[in-house]
Amino acid sequence: MQIIQQHMDGDIAVLTVDNPPVNAISAQMRQELWQAVDRLDADPAVRAVLLTCAGRTFIAGADVREFGQPPVEPHLPDLVDRIERAEKPWVAAIHGSALGGGLEIAMGCRFRVAAPDAKLGLPEVNLGIIPGASGTVRTPRLIGAEAAIGLVTSGRPWRAQQALTAGLIDAVVEGDLPEGAVKFARAALSAELPLPVSVRPVAPLDAAVWDRAAAAFAGPGQQAQARAVESLRYATEHPFDSAMRNERRIFVALRDSDQAAALRHVFFAERAAPRPPELKGVTPRGVARVGIVGGGTMGAGIAVACRNAGVPVVMVERDDEAAARGVSNIRAILAGSVKRGKLTEAQMADRLAGVEASADYARLAPCDLVIEAVFEEIGVKQAVFAELARVCRADAVLATNTSYLDPRRIFEGVPGQDRCVGLHFFSPAHIMKLLEIVPTPDTAPDVLATAFALAGRLGKMPVRAGICEGFIGNRIFKRYRAEAEKLLVEGHEVQQVDAAARDFGFRMGPFEAQDLSGLDIAFLQREGLRAEGQDVPDTLSDRLVRAGRKGQKTAGGWYDYAKGDRTPRPSAAAQEVLAPHIAGAGGLSSAQIAARLVDAMADEGRKILAEGIASRASDIDLVEIHGYGFPRWTGGPMFAAARSR
Ligand code: 3HC
Ligand code: NAI
């Protein structure tokens, strides 16, 4: 099957690339494009060539699945070069996304035009690599070095209008793209052709600008960004051919690196998790309005997540006063976004106008899906679900945001349990990407599909989880904290364990993070289990809480804190509480400590997999990356532990 079709529009040859789903560049596509250049150069009836794509997008880049396989000719940089040297000028007509190798092919064309909603970018750094087909060499020659640094190191695509302003494209085409592009090509042919991008001059930048750019990417996990700066700098200070050889060298080294392998793993994991195969063909229920019970930390955050996605919200609280508090919680979150410049005052007003808050459960009647986020007490939650069963439509989906309780117990007594599901958001719910979706054995497939569809609308990363204490994330987190305490018992310092976790790539170590969120939350949960008669031994953190040290809120936990200062300082008082329980002399290196923490998480993950709580190891990696700050560039605990074996 040919990937590329050709037809003539007068004296313009129109090529249409069709390689679903995203026109990723395969060896066959490269071969056919190469042949097309030769063929059209030799055809006297052709004055110009229009490169268009079928389906939802322009060429979205190299085929990531081909990375790591033996390269097949023609190589992409040579193809881009061949297109640029074509005797007939090529015009790229871009719709959807022109990404990575797709944009590099477009930069080999003499002209680029795009639909108004098109996106253009070089996202290679997100995969741990740099552009490998002249992206760091042609881009500065096309739009200047400073703009090129932004485009390449951010990995974020530009919208058509921004691309036009920067000079990345020559025109935005309203209406029918191929038709408008042919018109553009005809007009362009009547004027003098611009220089090919590779021979355009590029103004050098001050060394200080390059040094600043390099310094911005000195951290771990930014290896691709750092080397992209290096390649861009070289490209602006050296001739084209030498710059291409340099880019290639860096590209190949990065492509074969651990970070790139990890980021490719995450790329495919993120595309697999939202689409469980068992839901293929299952139509989700429509959700036009979401109900939320509870306007505390989570209820307010979930409400903002819904409103940011344009979904109207009905919030129900215990009484009018609590309902008003719920609204002010929402307002406080939105005001924070306004302060940070993420939202305008008008948008904030619009978000608030879409929230109806009251103490009257009957207001939930029109809601298609209701999320309960009240206190973590089984009796309170069961009472809420009894109310929901009374007031909600029989086909409304009912969800609980419980962290630890068994959803089956929460739904007991609700008629039609096939419409019930766990939706475990993470705090702050308007920011954290992770959403654990927890079906019970009774949950209907279309209800589960509705949960996944809602996650998509809210911009969340959904991961299916089975029922056990803490589901996937909190269960692994508990094991992580226990391992961190074990390292203390073996004689390592609190700050040593935290530093090891940070060196590995966590934003915070386990102990400073507990001080920030408060040691009392997990303590109270364990006290609850003890009150039920379960044998739950005291952890070291329980001992600190019993000594009045709950974290930053009490000016001390694992560390001490000066008033108004969140800097953790080693604590003699904490040490006194811990000392009787320390049984070793430490001695592990930072890397060994981090490996212990990661191995413990992976070990728990393997149990979770064996029990069927997670569907795939890569789902566990996503839970840790999107819910717990596990460094993305290591691929998650399962991937990292498997690699280090
Ligand atoms: N290679 C292989 N498969 C790809 C791919 C790629 N570059 N990009 C997307 N796919 C696959 C996905 O895995 C998915 O497959 P599935 O249906 O079997 O699960 C399918 O295409 C659809 O992908 P999405 O669900 O992401 O589709 P969307 O419509 O939501 O998004 C997109 C489309 C914006 C193009 C998005 O897929 C995307 O951002 N892709 C990555 C683009 C990229 O990173 N390109 C650079 C590649 S590296 C490169 O070009 C190196 C060069 O410089 C030499
Ligand atoms: P919170 O204490 O901040 O808010 C709970 C709210 O529920 C309060 O505003 C309270 O007035 C309201 N409420 C209590 N009983 C009610 C009733 N019968 N009807 C209506 N409203 C009622 O608690 P938070 O932190 O928001 O937690 C809520 C749920 O979310 C819990 O199940 C918790 O385990 C879960 N969760 C919490 C996370 C967190 O980090 N705080 C993370 C993920 C889940």
TrEMBL record:
Keywords: Fatty acid metabolism, Isomerase, Lipid degradation, Lipid metabolism, Lyase, Multifunctional enzyme, NAD, Oxidoreductase, Peroxisome
SUPFAM superfamilies membership: 6-phosphogluconate dehydrogenase C-terminal domain-like, ClpP/crotonase, NAD(P)-binding Rossmann-fold domains
Coiled coil: none
3-hydroxyacyl-CoA dehydrogenase C-terminal domain residues: 470-561
Pathway participation: Lipid metabolism; fatty acid beta-oxidation
Primary subcellular site in the record, as a coarse category: other
Localization per record: Peroxisome
Any one GO molecular-function label of the UniProt entry: enoyl-CoA hydratase activity
Reaction catalysed by this enzyme: a (3S)-3-hydroxyacyl-CoA + NAD(+) = a 3-oxoacyl-CoA + NADH + H(+)
3-hydroxyacyl-CoA dehydrogenase NAD binding domain boundaries: 290-465
PANTHER family per the UniProt record, alphabetical: 3-HYDROXYACYL-COA DEHYROGENASE (PTHR23309), PEROXISOMAL BIFUNCTIONAL ENZYME (PTHR23309:SF49)
Complex formation: Monomer.
Protein's recorded name: Short chain enoyl-CoA hydratase /3-hydroxyacyl-CoA dehydrogenase
Source organism (scientific name): Paracoccus homiensis
